[in-house]
Amino acid sequence: MSDSKTTKPITRRASLQAGLAVAALPFSGIFASYAAAQTKPATKVLDFTTTADIAKAEQEGEFLFYTHDSEPAGASVVEAFARDFPKIKGKYLRAQNGALFTKVLAERSAGRYVVDVIQFSEPATALDFQKRGGYMRHVSPQSEFYAAEYLSNPVGDFFCPGVTFAGICYNTDKVKPEEVPKNWKDLLDPRWQNAMSVKQSTSGLQFVQWFELKKLYGGSYWKELAKLKPRGFDSRAQLFDRLAKGDDKICGLAELAGYLLQKEKGAHIAFVAPPDGLPAGTLWNGVVDKAPHPEAAKLFVDWLMSPRGQNHYQTNPFFYYGSVRKDAPPMPGGTRLRDFKLLAPTAAEMPAYMAAQESFTKEWNAMLGL
Questions:
Q1: Domain 26-162+283-334 has CATH 3.40.190.10
Q2: pLDDT reading at 27 higher than 60
Q3: What average pLDDT does the segment 281-300 reach?
Q4: Mean pLDDT of 184-208
Q5: Taking a C-beta distance cutoff of 8 angstroms, is the pair 249, 181 a contact?
Protein backbone atom coordinates (compact mmCIF):
# COMPACT_ATOMS: atom_id res chain seq x y z
CA MET A 1 0.00 0.00 0.00
CA SER A 2 1.33 3.42 -0.86
CA ASP A 3 0.54 6.82 0.55
CA SER A 4 0.21 9.94 -1.52
CA LYS A 5 3.61 11.60 -1.80
CA THR A 6 4.90 14.76 -3.41
CA THR A 7 6.78 13.50 -6.48
CA LYS A 8 7.54 14.78 -9.10
CA PRO A 9 -10.35 7.33 -40.04
CA ILE A 10 -14.06 6.61 -38.41
CA THR A 11 -13.33 2.97 -37.83
CA ARG A 12 -14.84 0.30 -35.62
CA ARG A 13 -15.95 3.04 -33.24
CA ALA A 14 -19.50 1.74 -33.20
CA SER A 15 -18.28 -1.79 -32.54
CA LEU A 16 -16.11 -0.60 -29.66
CA GLN A 17 -19.00 1.28 -28.11
CA ALA A 18 -21.17 -1.81 -28.37
CA GLY A 19 -18.49 -3.78 -26.59
CA LEU A 20 -18.36 -1.18 -23.88
CA ALA A 21 -22.07 -1.60 -23.21
CA VAL A 22 -20.99 -3.64 -20.22
CA ALA A 23 -22.92 -6.91 -20.09
CA ALA A 24 -24.99 -6.33 -23.22
CA LEU A 25 -27.87 -5.19 -21.05
CA PRO A 26 -30.72 -2.99 -22.31
CA PHE A 27 -30.16 0.68 -21.64
CA SER A 28 -33.54 2.11 -22.59
CA GLY A 29 -34.68 4.41 -19.85
CA ILE A 30 -31.28 4.41 -18.18
CA PHE A 31 -31.19 8.17 -17.78
CA ALA A 32 -34.73 8.17 -16.45
CA SER A 33 -33.52 5.80 -13.74
CA TYR A 34 -30.56 8.12 -13.22
CA ALA A 35 -32.88 11.05 -12.64
CA ALA A 36 -35.07 9.02 -10.29
CA ALA A 37 -32.08 7.84 -8.27
CA GLN A 38 -30.59 11.30 -8.03
CA THR A 39 -32.31 12.34 -4.81
CA LYS A 40 -29.42 13.95 -2.95
CA PRO A 41 -28.83 17.65 -3.63
CA ALA A 42 -25.71 18.40 -5.61
CA THR A 43 -23.14 20.84 -4.30
CA LYS A 44 -20.82 22.81 -6.55
CA VAL A 45 -17.20 22.63 -5.49
CA LEU A 46 -14.37 24.11 -7.54
CA ASP A 47 -15.81 23.77 -11.06
CA PHE A 48 -17.88 20.56 -10.75
CA THR A 49 -20.85 19.25 -8.80
CA THR A 50 -20.94 16.39 -6.31
CA THR A 51 -23.50 14.72 -4.08
CA ALA A 52 -20.85 13.77 -1.53
CA ASP A 53 -21.06 15.46 1.86
CA ILE A 54 -17.82 17.43 1.65
CA ALA A 55 -17.69 18.25 5.35
CA LYS A 56 -18.03 14.55 6.25
CA ALA A 57 -15.51 13.62 3.58
CA GLU A 58 -13.00 15.97 5.17
CA GLN A 59 -13.80 14.55 8.61
CA GLU A 60 -13.12 11.04 7.27
CA GLY A 61 -9.85 12.51 6.04
CA GLU A 62 -8.74 9.61 3.86
CA PHE A 63 -9.71 6.92 1.37
CA LEU A 64 -8.10 3.82 -0.13
CA PHE A 65 -8.07 3.30 -3.91
CA TYR A 66 -7.43 -0.14 -5.46
CA THR A 67 -6.17 0.20 -9.04
CA HIS A 68 -4.71 -1.92 -11.83
CA ASP A 69 -2.48 0.98 -12.87
CA SER A 70 1.22 1.37 -12.14
CA GLU A 71 2.69 2.66 -8.89
CA PRO A 72 3.51 6.10 -10.39
CA ALA A 73 0.03 6.32 -11.89
CA GLY A 74 -1.68 5.43 -8.62
CA ALA A 75 0.42 7.99 -6.77
CA SER A 76 -0.23 10.70 -9.34
CA VAL A 77 -4.01 10.48 -9.23
CA VAL A 78 -4.34 10.59 -5.44
CA GLU A 79 -1.84 13.47 -5.40
CA ALA A 80 -3.88 15.37 -7.99
CA PHE A 81 -7.02 14.87 -5.92
CA ALA A 82 -5.19 16.00 -2.76
CA ARG A 83 -4.19 19.25 -4.43
CA ASP A 84 -7.89 20.02 -4.82
CA PHE A 85 -8.89 18.59 -1.42
CA PRO A 86 -5.87 18.88 0.89
CA LYS A 87 -7.79 17.73 3.97
CA ILE A 88 -8.30 14.26 2.46
CA LYS A 89 -5.33 11.90 2.25
CA GLY A 90 -5.57 9.39 -0.57
CA LYS A 91 -3.85 6.02 -0.42
CA TYR A 92 -3.66 3.44 -3.19
CA LEU A 93 -2.82 -0.20 -3.75
CA ARG A 94 -1.98 -1.48 -7.22
CA ALA A 95 -2.13 -4.95 -8.72
CA GLN A 96 -2.96 -6.37 -12.11
CA ASN A 97 -6.66 -6.79 -12.80
CA GLY A 98 -7.01 -10.48 -11.93
CA ALA A 99 -4.90 -10.21 -8.80
CA LEU A 100 -6.87 -7.16 -7.69
CA PHE A 101 -10.15 -9.01 -8.08
CA THR A 102 -8.89 -12.03 -6.16
CA LYS A 103 -7.61 -9.80 -3.35
CA VAL A 104 -10.83 -7.85 -2.84
CA LEU A 105 -12.94 -11.02 -2.91
CA ALA A 106 -10.71 -12.67 -0.31
CA GLU A 107 -10.94 -9.61 1.93
CA ARG A 108 -14.71 -9.46 1.69
CA SER A 109 -15.04 -13.20 2.34
CA ALA A 110 -13.06 -12.65 5.54
CA GLY A 111 -15.34 -9.77 6.57
CA ARG A 112 -12.64 -7.18 5.94
CA TYR A 113 -13.87 -4.01 4.25
CA VAL A 114 -10.85 -1.80 3.74
CA VAL A 115 -11.07 -0.44 0.19
CA ASP A 116 -13.20 2.59 -0.73
CA VAL A 117 -12.88 2.84 -4.53
CA ILE A 118 -11.83 0.14 -6.98
CA GLN A 119 -10.87 0.28 -10.65
CA PHE A 120 -10.74 -2.74 -12.95
CA SER A 121 -9.21 -2.82 -16.42
CA GLU A 122 -11.91 -4.73 -18.29
CA PRO A 123 -15.71 -5.04 -18.16
CA ALA A 124 -16.10 -8.73 -17.30
CA THR A 125 -14.44 -8.24 -13.91
CA ALA A 126 -16.54 -5.16 -13.11
CA LEU A 127 -19.70 -7.07 -14.00
CA ASP A 128 -18.71 -10.06 -11.88
CA PHE A 129 -18.03 -7.77 -8.94
CA GLN A 130 -21.40 -6.09 -9.47
CA LYS A 131 -23.20 -9.44 -9.46
CA ARG A 132 -21.55 -10.20 -6.12
CA GLY A 133 -22.92 -6.97 -4.64
CA GLY A 134 -19.50 -5.38 -4.56
CA TYR A 135 -20.49 -1.79 -5.30
CA MET A 136 -22.17 0.94 -3.32
CA ARG A 137 -24.83 2.66 -5.43
CA HIS A 138 -23.58 6.21 -5.97
CA VAL A 139 -25.35 8.14 -8.72
CA SER A 140 -22.96 10.95 -9.53
CA PRO A 141 -24.28 14.20 -10.99
CA GLN A 142 -21.42 13.84 -13.47
CA SER A 143 -23.22 10.85 -15.03
CA GLU A 144 -25.14 13.11 -17.40
CA PHE A 145 -21.91 13.78 -19.28
CA TYR A 146 -21.45 10.09 -20.17
CA ALA A 147 -23.26 8.01 -22.78
CA ALA A 148 -25.15 5.00 -21.49
CA GLU A 149 -22.57 2.48 -22.69
CA TYR A 150 -20.02 4.03 -20.36
CA LEU A 151 -22.18 3.67 -17.22
CA SER A 152 -23.26 0.62 -15.26
CA ASN A 153 -26.82 -0.64 -15.48
CA PRO A 154 -28.37 0.45 -13.21
CA VAL A 155 -26.51 3.74 -13.07
CA GLY A 156 -24.38 4.34 -10.01
CA ASP A 157 -22.31 1.19 -9.57
CA PHE A 158 -19.41 2.03 -11.88
CA PHE A 159 -18.41 4.15 -14.86
CA CYS A 160 -15.72 4.18 -17.55
CA PRO A 161 -12.98 6.68 -16.67
CA GLY A 162 -11.02 6.03 -19.86
CA VAL A 163 -9.93 3.77 -22.70
CA THR A 164 -6.47 2.34 -23.37
CA PHE A 165 -5.40 0.53 -26.53
CA ALA A 166 -2.34 -1.28 -27.80
CA GLY A 167 -0.38 -1.93 -30.96
CA ILE A 168 3.13 -3.28 -31.58
CA CYS A 169 6.34 -1.59 -30.46
CA TYR A 170 9.95 -2.34 -31.37
CA ASN A 171 13.46 -1.22 -30.49
CA THR A 172 14.80 0.74 -33.47
CA ASP A 173 18.41 -0.19 -32.62
CA LYS A 174 17.64 -3.91 -32.56
CA VAL A 175 15.17 -4.22 -35.45
CA LYS A 176 16.21 -3.39 -39.03
CA PRO A 177 13.79 -1.35 -41.17
CA GLU A 178 13.06 -4.34 -43.42
CA GLU A 179 12.22 -6.47 -40.35
CA VAL A 180 9.66 -4.09 -38.84
CA PRO A 181 6.30 -5.88 -38.29
CA LYS A 182 3.42 -4.23 -40.12
CA ASN A 183 0.54 -6.30 -38.78
CA TRP A 184 -0.28 -8.80 -36.04
CA LYS A 185 0.58 -11.85 -38.17
CA ASP A 186 4.12 -10.52 -38.55
CA LEU A 187 4.62 -11.32 -34.86
CA LEU A 188 4.70 -15.01 -35.86
CA ASP A 189 8.03 -14.55 -37.67
CA PRO A 190 10.64 -16.91 -36.14
CA ARG A 191 13.04 -13.98 -35.77
CA TRP A 192 11.11 -12.92 -32.66
CA GLN A 193 11.80 -16.15 -30.78
CA ASN A 194 12.98 -15.34 -27.24
CA ALA A 195 12.89 -11.64 -28.17
CA MET A 196 9.27 -10.64 -27.53
CA SER A 197 7.42 -9.49 -24.42
CA VAL A 198 3.72 -9.56 -23.52
CA LYS A 199 1.65 -9.13 -20.37
CA GLN A 200 0.68 -11.88 -17.93
CA SER A 201 -2.80 -13.41 -17.82
CA THR A 202 -3.82 -11.09 -14.98
CA SER A 203 -3.93 -8.20 -17.48
CA GLY A 204 -7.38 -7.21 -18.69
CA LEU A 205 -6.02 -5.77 -21.94
CA GLN A 206 -4.06 -8.94 -22.61
CA PHE A 207 -7.31 -10.88 -22.33
CA VAL A 208 -8.93 -8.53 -24.87
CA GLN A 209 -6.04 -8.98 -27.32
CA TRP A 210 -6.21 -12.76 -27.00
CA PHE A 211 -9.96 -12.75 -27.62
CA GLU A 212 -9.88 -10.31 -30.55
CA LEU A 213 -6.94 -11.80 -32.45
CA LYS A 214 -8.39 -15.26 -32.00
CA LYS A 215 -11.52 -13.97 -33.76
CA LEU A 216 -9.45 -12.50 -36.59
CA TYR A 217 -6.99 -15.32 -37.17
CA GLY A 218 -8.36 -18.41 -35.43
CA GLY A 219 -7.06 -20.39 -32.48
CA SER A 220 -3.91 -21.43 -34.35
CA TYR A 221 -2.56 -17.89 -34.12
CA TRP A 222 -1.74 -18.10 -30.43
CA LYS A 223 -0.43 -21.67 -30.75
CA GLU A 224 2.05 -20.45 -33.35
CA LEU A 225 3.05 -17.48 -31.23
CA ALA A 226 3.59 -19.76 -28.22
CA LYS A 227 6.37 -21.51 -30.15
CA LEU A 228 8.35 -18.27 -30.05
CA LYS A 229 8.41 -18.32 -26.24
CA PRO A 230 7.40 -14.75 -25.47
CA ARG A 231 8.17 -13.41 -21.99
CA GLY A 232 5.31 -12.25 -19.76
CA PHE A 233 5.48 -9.35 -17.32
CA ASP A 234 3.19 -7.79 -14.77
CA SER A 235 3.17 -4.14 -15.82
CA ARG A 236 3.56 -2.06 -18.95
CA ALA A 237 6.40 -0.21 -17.23
CA GLN A 238 8.39 -3.46 -17.23
CA LEU A 239 7.57 -4.07 -20.89
CA PHE A 240 8.77 -0.66 -22.03
CA ASP A 241 11.81 -0.53 -19.76
CA ARG A 242 13.00 -3.83 -21.21
CA LEU A 243 12.25 -2.70 -24.74
CA ALA A 244 14.10 0.59 -24.30
CA LYS A 245 17.16 -1.22 -22.90
CA GLY A 246 17.12 -3.75 -25.73
CA ASP A 247 16.40 -6.74 -23.48
CA ASP A 248 13.56 -7.48 -25.89
CA LYS A 249 13.40 -6.52 -29.55
CA ILE A 250 9.66 -6.25 -29.72
CA CYS A 251 6.60 -5.80 -27.50
CA GLY A 252 3.51 -7.68 -28.61
CA LEU A 253 1.11 -5.69 -26.42
CA ALA A 254 2.31 -2.10 -26.54
CA GLU A 255 -0.10 0.41 -25.05
CA LEU A 256 0.06 3.75 -26.81
CA ALA A 257 0.21 5.46 -23.41
CA GLY A 258 3.28 3.46 -22.37
CA TYR A 259 4.96 4.15 -25.70
CA LEU A 260 4.41 7.91 -25.44
CA LEU A 261 5.86 7.99 -21.92
CA GLN A 262 8.98 6.05 -22.88
CA LYS A 263 9.42 8.02 -26.10
CA GLU A 264 9.38 11.26 -24.12
CA LYS A 265 12.37 9.90 -22.21
CA GLY A 266 14.29 9.56 -25.47
CA ALA A 267 13.96 5.79 -25.92
CA HIS A 268 14.85 4.40 -29.33
CA ILE A 269 11.51 2.73 -29.93
CA ALA A 270 8.71 3.02 -32.50
CA PHE A 271 4.99 2.24 -32.51
CA VAL A 272 3.03 0.30 -35.13
CA ALA A 273 -0.77 0.47 -35.45
CA PRO A 274 -1.73 -2.70 -37.34
CA PRO A 275 -4.39 -2.06 -40.01
CA ASP A 276 -6.58 -4.83 -38.58
CA GLY A 277 -7.08 -2.70 -35.48
CA LEU A 278 -5.80 -2.13 -31.97
CA PRO A 279 -7.12 -4.12 -28.99
CA ALA A 280 -8.85 -1.67 -26.69
CA GLY A 281 -9.49 -1.95 -22.99
CA THR A 282 -11.97 0.01 -20.94
CA LEU A 283 -11.44 0.93 -17.30
CA TRP A 284 -14.30 0.60 -14.79
CA ASN A 285 -14.31 2.53 -11.54
CA GLY A 286 -16.77 2.64 -8.65
CA VAL A 287 -17.32 3.06 -4.90
CA VAL A 288 -17.07 -0.25 -3.04
CA ASP A 289 -19.91 -1.54 -0.86
CA LYS A 290 -19.27 -0.99 2.85
CA ALA A 291 -16.54 1.52 2.05
CA PRO A 292 -15.03 2.69 5.37
CA HIS A 293 -14.80 6.28 4.05
CA PRO A 294 -17.95 6.56 1.91
CA GLU A 295 -18.16 10.34 1.55
CA ALA A 296 -14.49 10.71 0.62
CA ALA A 297 -14.97 7.83 -1.85
CA LYS A 298 -17.98 9.50 -3.48
CA LEU A 299 -16.14 12.79 -3.74
CA PHE A 300 -13.15 11.09 -5.35
CA VAL A 301 -15.36 9.35 -7.93
CA ASP A 302 -17.26 12.57 -8.73
CA TRP A 303 -13.92 14.37 -9.11
CA LEU A 304 -12.60 11.61 -11.39
CA MET A 305 -15.73 11.81 -13.55
CA SER A 306 -15.44 15.60 -13.76
CA PRO A 307 -13.30 17.52 -16.28
CA ARG A 308 -10.61 17.88 -13.59
CA GLY A 309 -10.15 14.16 -13.06
CA GLN A 310 -10.61 13.30 -16.72
CA ASN A 311 -7.99 15.86 -17.69
CA HIS A 312 -5.55 14.14 -15.34
CA TYR A 313 -6.23 10.70 -16.83
CA GLN A 314 -6.02 11.96 -20.40
CA THR A 315 -2.92 14.16 -20.13
CA ASN A 316 -0.78 12.70 -17.35
CA PRO A 317 2.06 10.65 -18.92
CA PHE A 318 1.49 7.76 -16.52
CA PHE A 319 -2.02 7.36 -17.98
CA TYR A 320 -2.73 8.98 -21.37
CA TYR A 321 -6.18 7.34 -21.32
CA GLY A 322 -8.70 8.52 -23.89
CA SER A 323 -11.68 10.13 -22.15
CA VAL A 324 -15.22 9.09 -23.11
CA ARG A 325 -16.78 12.11 -21.43
CA LYS A 326 -19.03 13.86 -23.96
CA ASP A 327 -17.27 17.21 -23.64
CA ALA A 328 -13.70 15.84 -23.44
CA PRO A 329 -11.05 17.68 -25.47
CA PRO A 330 -8.69 15.79 -27.83
CA MET A 331 -5.94 13.62 -26.40
CA PRO A 332 -2.30 14.80 -26.43
CA GLY A 333 -1.26 15.14 -30.06
CA GLY A 334 -4.74 16.21 -31.13
CA THR A 335 -6.20 12.73 -31.66
CA ARG A 336 -9.49 11.35 -30.41
CA LEU A 337 -10.61 7.78 -29.86
CA ARG A 338 -12.58 7.86 -33.11
CA ASP A 339 -9.32 8.42 -35.01
CA PHE A 340 -8.20 4.85 -34.25
CA LYS A 341 -9.52 1.49 -35.39
CA LEU A 342 -10.20 -0.19 -32.06
CA LEU A 343 -10.94 -3.84 -31.35
CA ALA A 344 -13.13 -4.83 -28.39
CA PRO A 345 -15.81 -7.46 -27.71
CA THR A 346 -19.20 -6.37 -29.04
CA ALA A 347 -22.28 -6.38 -26.85
CA ALA A 348 -23.46 -9.61 -28.43
CA GLU A 349 -20.06 -11.20 -27.76
CA MET A 350 -19.90 -10.21 -24.12
CA PRO A 351 -21.30 -13.51 -22.73
CA ALA A 352 -18.77 -15.49 -24.78
CA TYR A 353 -16.01 -13.13 -23.74
CA MET A 354 -16.81 -13.53 -20.07
CA ALA A 355 -17.05 -17.32 -20.44
CA ALA A 356 -13.62 -17.45 -22.11
CA GLN A 357 -11.70 -16.08 -19.11
CA GLU A 358 -10.76 -19.50 -17.72
CA SER A 359 -9.62 -20.80 -21.12
CA PHE A 360 -7.52 -17.70 -21.69
CA THR A 361 -5.84 -17.91 -18.29
CA LYS A 362 -4.99 -21.58 -18.74
CA GLU A 363 -3.68 -21.14 -22.28
CA TRP A 364 -1.73 -17.98 -21.52
CA ASN A 365 -0.07 -19.32 -18.39
CA ALA A 366 0.95 -22.46 -20.27
CA MET A 367 2.47 -20.34 -23.06
CA LEU A 368 4.50 -18.36 -20.50
CA GLY A 369 5.51 -21.48 -18.59
CA LEU A 370 3.65 -20.45 -15.44
A1: yes
A2: no
A3: 97
A4: 96
A5: no
Using CA atoms of 305, 311, 315, 317 in order, give the dihedral in degrees to the nearest 10. -50
A 10 A CB-CB count for 333 gives 9
What is the rounded distance in angstroms from the CA atom of residue 312 to the CA atom of residue 81? 10
Dihedral of the CA atoms 270, 7, 334, 258 (nearest 10)?
30
Which strands, in side-by-side order, build the sheet including 117-120? 2-3, 89-94, 62-67, 117-120, 284-287
Radius of gyration of the CA atoms of the chain, in A: 20
Residues of the chain with pLDDT > 90: what percent? 79
Going by their DSSP bridges, the two strands 117-120 and 62-67 should be labelled as parallel
Q: What is the pLDDT of residue 38?
A: 54
Look at residue 37 in the predicted model and tell me its pLDDT: 52
Q: Does 273 have pLDDT greater than 80?
A: yes
pTM over 0.85: no
The yes-or-no answer to whether 26-162+283-334 and 165-280 have a common fold is: yes
Name the CA dihedral angle for 265, 267, 269, 273, rounded to a multiple of 10 degrees.
0
Spatial CA neighbour of 328 closest among 144, 158, 150, 145: 145
Instruction: Give residue limits of the domains in the chain.
Output: 26-162+283-334, 165-280
285: β partners: 119, 159
User: Is-contact 57 298, C-beta < 8 A?
Assistant: yes
Which CATH entry fits the domain spanning 165-280: 3.80.30.30, 3.30.70.20, 3.40.190.10, 3.40.50.1450? Answer: 3.40.190.10
Rounded alpha-carbon distances, angstroms, from residue 146 to 150, 163, 328, 344: 6, 13, 10, 19
Calculate the dihedral angle through the C-alpha atoms of 305, 21, 17, 313, rounding to the nearest 10 degrees.
20
Residue 75 has pLDDT above 70, yes or no: yes
Q: By the 8 A CB rule, do 23 and 154 touch?
A: no
